[in-house]
Amino acid sequence: MDTVDIIVKKRDGGKLDDEEIRYMIMRYTKGDIPDYQMSAFLMAVYFKGMDKGETTVLTDVMKRSGDVVDLSCINGIKVDKHSTGGVGDKTTLIAGPLAASCGVPVAKMSGRGLGFTGGTIDKLESIPGFKVSVERENFIEQVNTKGIAIIGQTGHIAPADKKIYALRDVTGTVENFSLITSSIMSKKLASGSDAILLDVKCGSGAFMKTQKDAEKLASMMVDIGNMSGKKTMAVITDMDQPLGRAVGNAMEVKEAIQVLKGQGEHDITELSVYLAGIMIYLGQKAATVEAGIKMAFHALRNGRGLKKFKDLITAQGGVLDIIDNTDLLPSAGVSLDFKAYDDGYINKIDAMRIGIASQHTGAGRFTKDDDIDFAAGIYFYKKTGAEVKRGEVICSVYGNDVKKVKKALEEIKSAVKITREKPEQRKLIKKIVR
């Protein structure tokens, strides 16, 4: 089998057979195919695409490139949740404990953030003492006894994806349906859960800018999940403005605590409860999605979700006092305010630009080796649709480097639009894909 022949076949729009896909992925993962040839292959796939059969094989090969985790020792139906990436998206910190408090075992392996989307593991690491690396035996025991564990992904889960994604990131081949699907689903299928919930974002702060594209991606992932024996569902949700008020690791942990105390912003509360409800349904603790949502809402109101979050923190070595004293979380030494430049209504808060601004503060990474400033980020006092007066503070920018904070502030100036007319309210939860 010849590498160049496979590249040319896909370049000319041909359908690759199973062995050709396996050859390219496994040989590249082992180091037998150089980066320049894999770059050419990825570019051919980017422009010519893959059909459903090719995408299914690609996902399976990437899944099998490393460990396939066995979680059969954990009692019950394990439900995993994945977001395609967003700005201010701390739903895992809320939906996970809510679902676990209703009897769904949550055994989650999460990633770190790269680019303008935050990683759940970075958020958890902002909690003093919290350990994101747990031995397999302890991980299983924790889920069986506490109902929830969230740890970092190991390098043994889908190593082909890790190597290929790094190449896609520097060759402009990230935004392709088949490549995104195989990247996400190879890791989810290898992580050992019995059911999968996908939160597929659409809007300025998402890979998929339109609902149509988000639905196409969601359908591909749901089909592959179900064909692989995992009950899979997806929710299409809005990411045209940041979710909640906080963007930044420690600040998002604070906001998650507020939500679990019943004091959170409406959008982040609504979405977290909705996602938890579907997890409860997938875990067969509710007969319908609607019943699952009601159970999640009750778990929020009666404090069981907050108690489960406390169990998570305690089990993984975190300082529990942060629940009642969030000042124990990392705090920034520099802050600057962004103020309304006119009277009117906030018409738009561009999520992507806000994400980039949060990177500038130090809350996100530009490369995988960048250090995170856990205290850095942005906090919004006003969201889209709010009426503002000239000079009124819309958001505050935090960090520990004044130059970085000023650079973030400049980015925010082009992200917020004020108009005389009040904008129509956007729908947060757009569609379920079964």
Automatic annotation (TrEMBL):
GO cellular component terms, A-Z: cytosol
Q: What Gene Ontology molecular function terms does this protein carry?
A: 1,4-alpha-oligoglucan phosphorylase activity; thymidine phosphorylase activity
Q: Its biological function? A: Catalyzes phosphorolysis of the pyrimidine nucleosides uridine, thymidine and 2'-deoxyuridine with the formation of the corresponding pyrimidine base and ribose-1-phosphate.
The UniProt entry's sequence similarity note says: Belongs to the thymidine/pyrimidine-nucleoside phosphorylase family.
SMART domains per the UniProt record, alphabetical = PYNP_C
Recorded hits in Gene3D superfamilies, A to Z, give: Nucleoside phosphorylase/phosphoribosyltransferase catalytic domain (3.40.1030.10), Pyrimidine nucleoside phosphorylase-like, C-terminal domain (3.90.1170.30), Transferase, Pyrimidine Nucleoside Phosphorylase, Chain C (1.20.970.10)
Which segments constitute the Pyrimidine nucleoside phosphorylase C-terminal domain? 345-419
**Keywords on record:** Glycosyltransferase, Transferase
Q: Which GO BP terms, alphabetically?
A: pyrimidine nucleobase metabolic process; pyrimidine nucleoside metabolic process
Recorded superkingdom? Bacteria
Enzyme Commission designation:
2.4.2.2
PANTHER family, alphabetically? THYMIDINE PHOSPHORYLASE
The reactions it catalyses are: 2'-deoxyuridine + phosphate = 2-deoxy-alpha-D-ribose 1-phosphate + uracil; uridine + phosphate = alpha-D-ribose 1-phosphate + uracil; thymidine + phosphate = 2-deoxy-alpha-D-ribose 1-phosphate + thymine
Name of the protein this chain belongs to = Pyrimidine-nucleoside phosphorylase
Quaternary organization = Homodimer.
One Pfam family matching this protein:
Glycos_trans_3N
